[in-house]
Amino acid sequence: MANVSANPDADQVQVQDIDLSDPQYTSDGIGNHPERSTGIRQPDTMYLHILSRMDILCNFVGSLPRGYSYFGRPHAPLGSSIRRYDLFIWGHPSGRCFRSHRQFCPHVVSIVQNKLDNCACYLCAINGPLSGAFAPPPPPSPPAAPTTV
Ligand SMILES: [Zn+2]
């Protein structure tokens, strides 16, 4: 688990580098990806830079958590010259995608803290914390009752 703490000697906050693809972080990513029309796969480093600017005192390096990928789709609203960039983070066991950094950030924190079973992010809250890859296997079916004739 990552340990982010303040350095009392230097009166500065130490920012720790975290590689979310490191095997020490248990990812629940399932590696699903969208149809071509929902975006183009983007480099992980592009998204990690954005994620590092969130309110987490970490510098994310390397790659996204295993099984997660970042897709983007540029668009310009009608009548506007400003181009926007829609983002999609795919890989959640629900099969749905995160549509913003604010949605994905709590899930990243749960991965780093190895607390996915209690994740309260947007998609886990919708689908339940034990959905998808973390769901226990269904109990075996009882044997069929013998039929007597
Ligand atoms: Zn979650």
Give the overall silhouette.
Answer: globular
* Overall residue-averaged pLDDT value: 79
Give the class from helix and strand content and strand pairing. alpha+beta
The domain count comes to 1
The largest sheet, given as strand count, sense and whether it forms a barrel, is: 3 strands, antiparallel
What are the distinct ligands in this entry? zinc ion
Number of helices: 3
Helical content band: 10-25%
Integer-rounded radius of gyration = 20 Å
Number of strands: 7
* Distance between the ends: 61 Å
InterPro entries: Clr2_N
Pfam families: Clr2_transil
Domain Cryptic loci regulator 2 N-terminal: 63-124
Organism: Aureobasidium subglaciale (strain EXF-2481) (Aureobasidium pullulans var. subglaciale)
Task: Give a quick rundown of the structure.
By secondary structure, the protein is of the alpha+beta class. It has one domain (about 5-130).
Task: Give a verbal description of the structure.
Helices cover 18% and strands 19% of the residues. With 149 residues, it is an alpha+beta fold. The chain has one domain. The strands form three sheets. The protein has a three-stranded antiparallel β-sheet with strand order 4-6-7, with no helix packed on it. It is globular and about 75 Å long. It starts with 5 loop residues before the first strand and ends in a 22-residue tail after the last helix. Residues 3-7 and 129-138 have low confidence and may be disordered. The site of zinc ion (ZN) has 6 residues, from helix 2 and helix 3.
Keywords, separated by commas or semicolons:
alpha+beta; three-stranded antiparallel β-sheet; two-stranded antiparallel ribbon; 3 helices; globular; Clr2_N; Cryptic loci regulator 2 N-terminal domain-containing protein
